[in-house]
Design goal:
Number of strands: 10
Distance between the termini: 16 Å
Number of domains: 1
Structural class: mainly beta
Largest sheet: 10 strands, antiparallel
Mean pLDDT: 95
Order of helices and strands: EEHEEEEEEEE
Helix content: under 10%
Shape: globular
């Protein structure tokens, strides 16, 4: 029996305007950064404590130059977090139990956009501090092209990771 194990994930985003009209649906594959992969390996094979709760954050297009496998929350020169949403913290990713070699959230993670701007991507981290620079960074993902947002828009995000 030959078994392949390669972690990968994707974000599904439903974008609605202030009138609840559908603006777009986006499916974005993510990259898992070194820190995230090292954390998984350490948790399963080196007795590092599990992170019980993960959070989703948004990435602004301003200053965007790209991702790096070595990105961590304290140092990611190619991108900046967007805090242009009304929630007081990053939105919790509430995952269900794994099944069929995948894990996902059944209820969307909703972001209420409160300013016009341009979004570039999404990330997952272990700390909920909006605009914060701590926590374990798990993954990053960029929209295929930038997404223009307006005050009153909503992002409804589902994240799935599989092996």
């Amino acid at each position: 029996m030959k078994d392949k194990f390669s972690l990968k994930g994707f974000f599904s985003v439903e974008h609605r305007n202030k009138n609840n009209e559908l603006v777009g649906i986006y499916r974005i594959p993510n990259g898992i950064v070194n820190e995230g992969l090292n954390h998984i390996l350490d948790t399963e094979f080196h007795a590092t404590a599990q992170i019980a709760t993960w959070y989703i954050g948004l990435v602004d297009n301003a200053g965007w130059t790209g991702w790096n496998d070595a990105d961590v929350m304290a140092a990611h020169a190619g991108w900046a977090e967007s805090v242009a949403y009304t929630e007081g913290t990053r939105v919790e990713w509430t995952e269900g139990a794994a099944a069929a070699r995948a894990i996902t959230n059944a209820v969307t993670c909703d972001f209420s956009i409160n300013a016009a701007g341009v979004m570039k991507g999404i990330f997952i981290v272990s700390d909920n501090t909006k605009g914060g620079a701590i926590g374990v960074l798990w993954s990053t993902a960029a929209f295929t092209s930038v997404v223009n947002v307006n005050n009153g828009d909503t992002f409804k995000i589902t994240y799935t990771v599989s092996g």
